[in-house]
Amino acid sequence: MHLLRKISHISFGMTCLLLDVFSRNTGFSFPPILLFIALLGLSLEWIRLKHSNFNQFIFKVVSFAAREEEVNKISGLSFFCLSTALCLLFLPKHLAYLTILYLTFADPIASLIGVRWGEKKIYNNKSYLGFFSFVGTCLIINFCYLILNFPTFKSELFLFLSLCSPFIALSEVYSPFDDNITIPLTSAFLLTILSSLINLVPLI
Q1: Would you say the C-alpha torsion 165, 169, 170, 172 has a positive or negative sign?
Q2: For residues 198 and 204, what is the distance between their CA atoms, to the nearest angstrom?
Q3: Of the candidates 97, 96, 107, 81, which has an alpha carbon nearest to the alpha carbon of residue 5?
Q4: pLDDT tens column, 38-62
Q5: If we measure between CA atoms, which residue out of 100, 109, 107 comes closest to residue 34?
Q6: Distance of alpha carbon 183 from its chain centroid, rounded?
Q7: What does the alpha-carbon distance between residue 146 and residue 140 come to, in Å, rounded to a whole number?
Q8: Cα–Cα distance, 196 to 92 (Å, whole number)
Q9: 17, CA 20 to 30 Å: which among 6, 106, 141, 163?
Q10: 3-state DSSP call for residue 127?
Q11: How much is the pTM?
């Protein structure tokens, strides 16, 4: 079930990105629709938490993508949907895509590796191995994204982007909030600050 949840997480993130790419190429506006879906989902979450029978029914339907501890709180999927919509609406395209890719891949990969092999913990049941897996995945994402979109990019651009990765990973470890909110907020904040201090053209 843990692996299935991570596959669902990655599939949802990539679907959102592909739909946004398609919408930008066709003039169709996807982010407002995703925001509406997120707000609708949060409304259903509130109703679910207020009515136990409805809660049990919904949880059975989405049990393949939900964690047991989410039965009595808002699910990570709703936060994922909301944060993805806000990134697409308010961030420059490439910064939004990088932020969503971090959330889509680095978080589940770090979780899978940390749960399976991460015996030595840092804090809040998060392991050193999971932390370094998160950072490593972000570095791979940065490199692949730049190669695919900007084949002639300067190495300094990769370096500046990669400086954010450990701080994003630390936010995932130490934040008391849901990762699906913490990771995109931290990524968006750091990348925005970095772009204001350093010329990140062509990313901005």
Answers
A1: positive
A2: 11
A3: 107
A4: 999 899 888 888 888 877 777 776 6
A5: 100
A6: 6
A7: 10
A8: 12
A9: 163
A10: strand
A11: 0.88
